[in-house]
Amino acid sequence: MPQEIERQYKEILRQYVMRQTEQNLYAGQNFSRQLIQKNIAPEEVISIHKAALEEMFPELPMNVWHSFDLLIEMMIRYGLAHAEHQSLLEQQEEIKVEMDLAANVQRTLLKTTVPEVAGLEIGLVSVPARKMNGDYIYFLSDDLKNAGVAVADVIGKGIPAALCMSMIKYGMDSLQDATSDPKKVLDIINRIVEKSVDDDMFISMFYGRYNVEQSVFTYASAGHEPALFYDAQKGEFSELHAKGLLLGVVPNVTYAQHEVKMEYGDFIVMMTDGVTECRTDEGFIEQEIIASLIHSLRDESAQTIVDTVYKELEKMQNFELRDDFTLVIFKKTH
Amino acid sequence: MGYRSSVEILTEWDIVAARQLGRNEAKEVGFGTVDQARITTAISELARNIYLYAGKGKIEIERISEGGSFGIIIIASDEGPGIPDVRKVMEDGFSTSGGLGAGMPGVKRLMDDFKIETVLGEGTVIKATKWIR
Ligand SMILES: Nc1ncnc2c1ncn2[C@@H]1O[C@H](COP(=O)(O)OP(=O)(O)OP(=O)(O)O)[C@@H](O)[C@H]1O
Ligand SMILES: [Mg+2]
Which residues form a coiled coil (chain B) (predicted)? Predict the structure, then answer.
């Protein structure tokens, strides 16, 4: 094979030395593509060039031949750098495949079903910035009178965050009871997290529970973004604040718990900081812009609202998500 | 065992001497210009590691033949600190100059066979073989 390459190269070189046309150069470049595919190192190429030249112009002075030896020596490192680059690319490909598999496992493992309770519409969108999601949603419901939702956000993103999620899931799984008070839920999860994670891993979490009979939304927060409450009658938003430390900092925390009565058309927007900290190159997207966007969609279904908000914010950020993005809406429909 | 010649590595200049020896040997054994340059580069890397990390040691070049094939072995040995994590060192991108294709993985690529023996606190012996194609 090398002999064949040498022969072909010599022909291309001969043509070019004779005529110097663009076509000859084009042929040369196409040939180099073949060389790369065949893993011919740059020092080899120079050696092929030298050999071809020796055959065509044997009478060239010695200095010229010596100069090629220096060039060959110089090109060895380029060849090595190229080979290393090649192998790093292959490794990257392997990691990508592995990440895809892991993301799949995560999706299956952390799957949660949106509950159905009378008079309440639930909309949910959760999109990871990278492959693995550091935001987590867990629904806890008796599919009758209570619909609870946990919105958690591990500070940081990617794999470490994703690994942390399963802990929350198993903590929530152990609860079972959809009538549990939000402050109690946070207390239990906090104890689990505090025991199991490093000091430098923090998780914020919001837990809200809607009760059908009383039309009341009860909530508590562990250092999470405040939820937004839309009052349909007044046509305005207010923030649902609740005091409470991030999960996993100290074992004993008393979480504040509040409630809000929901009327027809009211809705509650729960989110992670991937929503509130949406950024464009010019800076953060103003909270008011997001609020007015949601306001303009107030008559749509809960799912349409979250989907549309996601699409709009994605567009505003030039389709670059900097953080995992999660938005949940509880909307009272009758 | 074939004919062996060697260079002690004590100063940076000895790296050049080791290169020179390697190139001469490679030429005499019958390697072409490109392979001569590859062998020399491998020697350069190994000698520089001895100089930088072990302080002193030696590079030996042994001529070998087997069933009508000829080649050489570079033996780089020192009584330095040894290498704690060989697997890491053999990973692409680990060397200090990462991404330039140099270092031990580069040596492995340049040669046909690469063997390393290292004991912490006792030293390192690396044998790299190349055959004429
Ligand atoms: N003979 C040796 N004795 C002890 N440690 C060594 C020896 N050779 C290499 N090492 C260790 O292995 C590491 C990797 O060596 P390698 O030659 O691959 O890369 P580098 O010397 O760090 O950088 P580069 O060679 O690319 O400039 C070194 O940083 C050094 O810690
Ligand atoms: Mg080195």
Answer: none
Q: Using alpha carbons, select from A296, B112, B94 the residue that is nearest to residue B104.
A: B94
The ipTM estimated for the assembled molecules is: 0.89
Q: Does B38 touch chain A (CB under 8 A)?
A: yes
Q: Are residues A69 and A161 in the same domain?
A: no
CB-based contact, A90 to chain B, within 8 Å = no
Task: Report CA-CA distances (Å) from B37 to A47, A71, B108, B111.
Answer: 11, 10, 15, 11
Task: Check CB contact under 8 Å for A47 and B38.
Answer: no
> pLDDT for A58-91, tens place per residue?
999 999 999 999 999 999 999 999 999 999 999 9
Domain shared by A13 and A63, yes or no? yes
Structure tokens at B91: 């990973």
Residues A234 and A135 placed together within one structural domain of the fold: yes
- Residue B125 C-alpha to ligand 2 middle, in angstroms? 14
Q: Is the CB of B124 under 6 A from ligand 1?
A: yes
B2 contacts chain A (CB < 8 A): no
> Is residue A321 located within the same domain as residue A196?
yes
Q: What residue of A is the nearest CA neighbor of B42? A: A76
Q: What fold, for B4-131?
A: Heat Shock Protein 90 (3.30.565)
